[in-house]
Sequence to fold (457 residues):
Amino acid sequence: MSLSLIILAAGRGTRMSSDLPKVLHEVAGAPLIGHAMMAGGALSPEHCVVVTGHGGEMVADRVQGISPGARIAQQKQQLGTAHAVAQAGDSLDGFSGDAIVLYGDTPFIRPDTLRRMQERRRDGADVVVLGFDAADPGRYGRLVVEGDRLTRIVEAKDASPDELAITLCNSGVVCADWKTLLALIGRVGNDNANGEYYLTDIVGLAAGDGLRCAVEICDEAETMGINSRAELARAEATYQDGARARAMAEGATLTAPETVFFAHDTRLGRDVSIEPHVVFGPGVTVSDGARLRAFSHLEGCHVGAGAVIGPYARLRPGTRIGAQARIGNFVETKNAELGDRAKINHLSYVGDARIGAEANIGAGTITCNYDGVFKHHTEVGAGAFIGTNTALVAPVDVGAGAMTAAGSVITGNVPEGALGIARAPQVNKPGLARRMRDKLLALRAKRSKQNTYGLDN
Ligand code: UD1
Ligand code: MG
Fold:
């Protein structure tokens, strides 16, 4: 059975008090809408349609950055959730199969939950609604169930006291045959407390037609929607708790789990150990047995097996660290490939570079990769030794097994096995240090005497 996703993301998100559309605020380094797309994407849908409204262009750009095939449907006026789904009509013209409706501001629905909804469809339910037992039902729509059938959904604002006492609530996620869904939506009116076209009304209409509507239950935590910055922070905390638990269950050691922050796509091998206060941006993979020491920040990079990173290291996008390699304190790398067992142990910037296996980059080495307009590449061969405080002015190539003298500004290639020295020769002036010091001390004595008599300052 083919599937299409419809993700509703037209709402204003007033309570975020933000110029950024609500669904573009991030949890674990991915926008809220990205989480919804990933959850639905795990079911390999044929189409994904995102319904945009407020901040539509920004949302469309980000959505297509995540999934170039995603389709955008504009909802010019936010007339309700049924009206929003109807806007996907053109994008899904000619599609036959099931549709799942998700909300762009609800990031934690699990793929397995959606699969269970699909199973309910296969078992004969015409409309499947995802429900949950709410600790505080508040303003959620209530699911009215008779026997094993869902007969109606009533919005809190329109509910009677008896209906308000129901704790089984609507998450908003719906799965149905697309054509059936579209036909039902066409019959939804807006005669209710909000004057909106409610998607929830399709259940009463379907049941009236003799169609079977069923509820699939999920954990309330999955249905958490984000409406404010406080809820965004709570969602981040919830996500991180889960990610830390998963990392440990899969064989990573976290000394102080509550201080480690993962991204949505962090991948760790076995026996990776992570010291306190390590932060992962998106796109990080870490191989078996690597050690990430305290206060390191990693983003868009790969760390090879058994490598040691930090403490206080910053690995930026495009960094690839070889097996058993070492990155020490206050080292920044960007778009840099480091061979196996290579070392950059102290106070360096290495960008747009390839460092060969077992090369040693001395303290304070800087690749001067940027001339203000263009970026240039630095190549350091296997087993090379870059002396302390070397400036490698790119484009430049230091051959395998070559050396640079400490303090050199290397502007030309250093051939394999050669020593490159590029600094002023040292000149010693005998006795000059002592003479200068005596002169300065005498000057100070004279000045302090003048101050005592108030003559000068
Ligand atoms: C909706 C449900 C309610 C459910 C709750 C769960 C309806 C009528 N009610 O209520 O039963 O318990 O979600 O959180 O469906 N949206 C649009 N265009 C619109 C209106 C909404 O794209 O015209 C989007 C919003 O951006 C949001 C989602 O649809 O992502 C839900 O809309 P919202 O206004 O939050 O609905 P609720 O009142 O919370
Ligand atoms: Mg809502």
Remarks:
- The longest helix spans residues 229-249.
